[in-house]
Here is the input.
Amino acid sequence: MINELLGCEIIGTYAIETQELTKRFVLDRGFLDVIRNTGKRDVLTTLDGVNIKVREGEVLGLLGPNGAGKSTLIKILCTLILPSEGYAYVNGYDVVKEGQTARSSIGFVTTDERSFYWRLSGRENLQFFATLHNLPQTQAKARVEELLDVVHLKHRADEPFLNYSAGMKQRMAIARGLLNDPMVLFMDEPTRSLDPGAAKNLRDFIKEHIVGERGKTVFISTHQLDEAEQLCDRVAILDEGRIKVQGSPAELKGSLPEGSSLCDVFSFYTGKAFVEESSSPAPFKLRRERRRGLGLGMKRKGY
Ligand SMILES: Nc1ncnc2c1ncn2[C@@H]1O[C@H](COP(=O)(O)OP(=O)(O)OP(=O)(O)O)[C@@H](O)[C@H]1O
Ligand SMILES: [Mg+2]
Here is the structure.
């Protein structure tokens, strides 16, 4: 556990803390591009000096347009990918130097349904993932039953996962994220593809059970401004890899003329209208398109 002085602040006093966190991706290049431009590298800076602090028991909402870097930030904090520069601490553990310990203290809720076994029942799925956390069998069974209760799925637990509705699958993903009883729960767009009613149920569930009763810290990325407003104690707006502003929804709205909404705050700090599918042009995609034009296959086809 890191507890050393850096400047005048003690690292480890926050559930999540990043310092000048930067991530650069070296982009794939076509064979001909590599031959023609030897030594040249296409680099995409996805996160650029991100500083963020989240207190224990707090819900932080990460907002930003498509391609802003939200999932990349969550992946670094969950120790799934390494940063290029800077530091990140979760529960006081350095995600690079103490990755394994950091990992055991966090839960990650991903919306990817394919990561479940569709022919296994809900209960069997959770039991399988519990064994991956090295929980002793009796403890694993007890934890699975407890979590099935928490996510209100006990009555459907023996049905195959493929029978579940989108909302039920999301609740299964949350149960899986809580299997190791983590202090911090990361959620990447957990209400994506849910209808408004199911999304509200999930928000209430996070607020009442996960934060209220269990005292977890929650780091959630979302495209829903009303969700951020209802659920989050604080909101950070990320755009083009930089944190533009962070604060409580009330503070952020208060920083603009009276009557401003979170949507106005988003537009003010990013310079973009808040449209769910709006996005800054993705350099990655543009470059890929350009390379395709140079490809041998395209030339043969006479493009
Ligand atoms: N492995 C990778 N290699 C190259 N570029 C990547 C990689 N992963 C992400 N990127 C690029 O980094 C940028 C940020 O991606 P990221 O998925 O973090 O955005 P996001 O804010 O989660 O977007 P969305 O709202 O669409 O989920 C994008 O331009 C993306 O193409
Ligand atoms: Mg994303």
Observations:
- Residues 70-71, 188 surround magnesium ion (ligand 2) (CB under 6 Å).
